[in-house]
DNA sequence: ACTGAGCGA
């Protein structure tokens, strides 16, 4: 009968699970390799007065961005990146503080907070590419 | 139409 096998089955299963004392033989290793580099390519730039704000709502404008970040320091310049053709916001912007400590407070104060129903992320912006030489064809004419 | 990772005219 199959009843005898059913009695002997739990006995073998108990030995199977109790023999799991050595967890090093388990194929599932949630721990990362010890030789891994902590950060081969850091997603965050070095401390700077400029801040990169992402996760903005499509309805968030430059005025709203400066108004919110001005509560943590003096905002020298704030801009929400919008598309030139469509005119809609791309969902991220930049905020420049007067000093670096104000920029740090701005990140600590606005990073992970809600703005217009969206969780925004504030971090140090990367240095922009060189504008090149002063020429009439330079695209850096007009602002700042 | 703006949809959802990102680095700007």
From TrEMBL:
PROSITE patterns: RRM (PS50102). One of its GO terms (biological process) is mitochondrial mRNA modification. Signal peptide: none annotated. Residues 49-127 form the RRM domain. SMART domains: RRM. GO terms for molecular function: RNA binding. InterPro entries: Nucleotide-bd_a/b_plait_sf, RBD_domain_sf, RRM_dom. Keywords: RNA-binding. It comes from the Eukaryota. One of its GO terms (cellular component) is mitochondrion. PANTHER family: NUCLEOLAR PROTEIN 8. This is RRM domain-containing protein.
């Amino acid at each position: 009968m199959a009843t005898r096998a059913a009695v002997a089955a739990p006995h073998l299963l108990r030995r199977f699970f109790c023999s799991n004392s050595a967890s090093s033989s388990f194929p599932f290793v949630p721990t990362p390799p010890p030789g891994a580099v902590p950060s081969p390519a850091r997603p965050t730039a070095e401390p700077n007065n400029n801040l990169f704000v992402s996760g903005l709502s499509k309805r968030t404008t430059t005025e709203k961005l400066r108004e919110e970040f001005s509560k943590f320091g003096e905002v020298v310049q704030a801009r929400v990146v919008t598309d030139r053709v469509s005119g809609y916001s791309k969902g991220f912007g930049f905020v420049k503080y007067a000093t670096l400590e104000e920029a740090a407070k701005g990140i600590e104060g606005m990073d992970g907070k809600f703005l217009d129903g969206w969780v925004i992320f504030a971090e140090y912006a990367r240095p922009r590419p060189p504008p090149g030489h002063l020429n009439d064809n330079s695209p850096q004419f007009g602002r700042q």
